[in-house]
Design brief:
8 helices
Length: about 170
Amino acid sequence: MDTNLKIKLAQKGDDNAFYELISERKSQLYKTAFAYVKNKEEAMDIVSDTVYKAYISIKKLKEPSFFNTWLTRILINTSLDSIKKSSKAAAFEENICVNTGIIVKDDEQLIDLNVAVDNLNGEYKTIVILKYFQDMTLIEISKILQCPLGTVKTRLHKALGELRLDLKEELL
């Protein structure tokens, strides 16, 4: 079944169509949530909250072609809300390598990379996560964040510069 048709059916109250839409994206949703909180249970809670929020508001989605953008925006906001609520440090339970042009040779360097990503300010962190954890294009990121493409490019460039600088200091 066509994705746009599933979205339209879900908007009309078809629970099976909504379930299929979410099932197709659950892995991506989890990876993004985990990239923010670095905790399996918290990431699962964020995905659950995101699915619930999407379910109760899918009828408000005006353009079905923006479903992925809309769902990702809900996930990002839910993740940021979760981070604000919990002031505890995130534990590293899974290894996620970010393809930023930085070569990671062992688990210790991978942890350093994750810490460096976590230390980025919110705007930079979101762009790095969407670009390298979700493999989104800069245009897609621009739509999700509702900011100009040039701004996304500039923030990504600055974020990568900060990561390289931070990791260079860690490795010395």
